[in-house]
Amino acid sequence: MYQTDPDPKIATLPSGIRISYRIFPGKSKVPLFCVHGLTGNLKNFEPIATNLSKKGITVITYDLRGRGRSDKPKEEYTARIHAEDLKQLSSLLGYSKISVLSHSLGAWITLRFAEKFASSLDRAILIDGGGELSIKRKISNLLMIQGSLARLGRRIPSKETYLQEAKKSPLLSAWNKNIQNFLLYELEPVGTLSPSLVPKNGENLLGPVICSIPPYVIDSELKNMGGAMKPSHIFSRVFRSPKEFLQILKENKIMPYSALNCPVLVIRALKPNFRSGDELLPDPAIEKMKLKIGNLQIVELKDKNHYESVLLEDPFRDREIFQFLKIK
């Protein structure tokens, strides 16, 4: 894996799973744990974590199992399993009470954490995720993320090629060092350049690379949310195991909002990802949150899409998060 400074630390959980994490120091007694999305890693939150740390908030970012430098067992991946990992990690680091900031899939994990460990949750911040969606909208969202799934399992000629492809993505309106570090962090070398191709200036270029997220991890995650890496696979799963599929849909239809007994901040990205109306938290989902979550605040990012809501700098977003965390 490409090295970036400072290197994350590794925590071995009571379950035996090793989780990679990084601490951004602050003075707050209750730390903020950041939970990334489906194909993210701990680098997702670097802009937010850095800014909050400067203001005195202790922030802890980490790689979900199956991503980054955390273990990637060939086992089932679900929001509940990730919630258990979060509880074990926070306890191992000495915290009985935490706040959680989460993005996309991370919002599902936060809700499952609240469902089982409500007394451990001080505040919850859900960024563009955790909404109750119709089946039609879920399929639409699955189609929307296909572009980000295309990099899994692909052998890329070099890290430079990988970055150049990412720069062309219509999902990012800007490019910065944080995005570059996020992408480089997920790469693993699968070969080296031949001596004849090594630059004469001595630059240490690695050869072919691959995204370190195994496709089986993402397929398991999506399966347990009623989806699949390829939309066509949904229908084959319905055909093979209709009872199991209907059970998964039933379980994920209603979010456990009642478990959120703490203050909740929902940050909603309103900029289209590809086309108008394809946001991940549509109006009906927001209205349900308003009805079912008691202590709720909502902030809208009108100039950010789903991915930009965490990857790009945003003083307004960070100010709202800081104000929410410091209010007692």
From TrEMBL:
Database matches in Pfam families: Abhydrolase_1
Gene3D superfamilies the UniProt entry points to: alpha/beta hydrolase (3.40.50.1820)
A GO cellular component entry from the record: membrane
Matching InterPro entries: AB_hydrolase_1, AB_hydrolase_fold, AB_hydrolase_sf
Record's signal peptide: none
Lineage: superkingdom: Bacteria
Keyword set, alphabetical order: Hydrolase
Record PANTHER family: HYDROLASE, PUTATIVE (AFU_ORTHOLOGUE AFUA_2G14860)-RELATED, MONOACYLGLYCEROL LIPASE
Protein name, UniProt field: Alpha/beta hydrolase
Lineage: Bacteria, Pseudomonadati, Spirochaetota, Spirochaetia, Leptospirales
